[in-house]
Amino acid sequence: MIPVKNDIETACKQVWAFAHRTPVLQSTLLNDLAGCEVFFKCENLQKMGAFKMRGALNAIGNLSDAHKKAGVVTHSSGNFGQAVALAAKNLGVTAYIVMPKNAPEVKKNAVKAYDGIITECESTLAARESTSQRIKEETGATFLHPSNDIDVILGNATSGVELLQDHPDLDVLMTPVGGGGLVAGTALAAHYFGKDCKVIGGEPFNADDAYRSLQSGKIETNETTDTIADGLRTHLGDKNFPIIKELVSEIIRVEEQEIIDALQLIWERMKIVIEPSCAVPFAALLREKDRFKNKKVGIILSGGNIDVKNLPF
Amino acid sequence: MIPVKNDIETACKQVWAFAHRTPVLQSTLLNDLAGCEVFFKCENLQKMGAFKMRGALNAIGNLSDAHKKAGVVTHSSGNFGQAVALAAKNLGVTAYIVMPKNAPEVKKNAVKAYDGIITECESTLAARESTSQRIKEETGATFLHPSNDIDVILGNATSGVELLQDHPDLDVLMTPVGGGGLVAGTALAAHYFGKDCKVIGGEPFNADDAYRSLQSGKIETNETTDTIADGLRTHLGDKNFPIIKELVSEIIRVEEQEIIDALQLIWERMKIVIEPSCAVPFAALLREKDRFKNKKVGIILSGGNIDVKNLPF
To answer: pTM of the entire structure?
Structure first.
């Protein structure tokens, strides 16, 4: 069941009421290096610093009034917790964010700054899930999944829609692949708003579950996730995998050093702050640049939430 | 002799043919912190990473065909050398860039990448000036000054013009003050395109020549320039000082730690790479924030050329 074009248009209305229309940047030097024309869609410059704001806005915006009143709950140690807190604040909804006790203070403070109600738990997935479940039962709040939720995927699609509105003739759209919510949304955007625009994901060799899932035809998981791209350690879900299987052309895998090199290049040449996961599709493009020669390639730069005092280069 | 409005409009045509129209970014968190609405005009995202591209484009574009054929020469260890090389390349003009022998390789490589012809010299001002003079005599090239040149000032004005086109009701425009070319250009933009829009400069206490110049009414110099804001160590010139005296309301001075704090805030919250000089006006705003309460303040973020492997925070 692939969502229809109208679903995305509805999501655009929800998201555009509150999100930034992020700029699209280009660099002559990076074009020369890549041998093609690259259009960077800067979701690192989105509110709260990541595309996740879009999915959160759409998912919360689509709730019934009664569900909005009861609030939303998610568990997250990263960007999605901040996104849900800020999106909920914009929409006048209470957000319960379950975070591991050992989450960095800076992330807890960001959620608090957006008026999110934090419940701390042990740092296991089981503890996070059971705590979320308890809050859901106690408050009636709706649980939001960061990537395996159709409304989140549709919200994510709005970034690709904007990029294709600005540059309708892109040959390729690239995103990182973590939980699959961004690549699935972008694939929907390309399918309905592109002109024969392929979607290609980038993934670390060290967490290549999505690459293997496309090979095997079923959702694969990672035995180990030893990658600097900390946003890409999760695996696909039953809501986004059917979309990815149908609409994503392929996934290119990259080495850790290629991620770090691409990260540094984008910082130095584009003058923007991005997080390691965000550099993965550009690393994938550079790795296989012969195949993209003279093409027009859009890259969704997914986010910029990184500790600037602790850089990998 | 203050330039007229038409001079700026002519500069806009020259500059807009080649420069990026840089995005204007906002951050709710930084607005809350500053107690006013701040519009950041991102010249760090300009071609070659600084506003200096604008002045170079206008100065070279305004040369006669004969002068264009003979080329341009400047001496620079920083952004202006890169700007002249790239602007000249865009306009099909030869650029001779005099650089101190001990300039960082990365800066020399940037000039070379833009096809600039580098002549190395000793790292004294006298050596830089005499080398430039010799090239001028040998080649007939026109010497370009980075800040004390009316065409450069008019080119710089185009950033403020764009910001005021996007946000016509700004109460204040702020820039850093180094050689005076940016603040003078911005003051012209506010004078002709703003609605009662004040221009305020930011300057380090440790290189406060412009502050003292406005006090005394004549161009003052710095005895020492011990500031992290390495782009702001120079003093005003006879072309820009009359404009600054007439059109700049005041200059606010800031401490070194305030510059570093503002730098880190912009990196972390705005997700963009800026250089220390560029953080000075936001530091000035935060230092005196009570005076800007509920105002609309535009800040020209001047540039992003910093060694990302050697950060001050």
So the answer is: 0.95
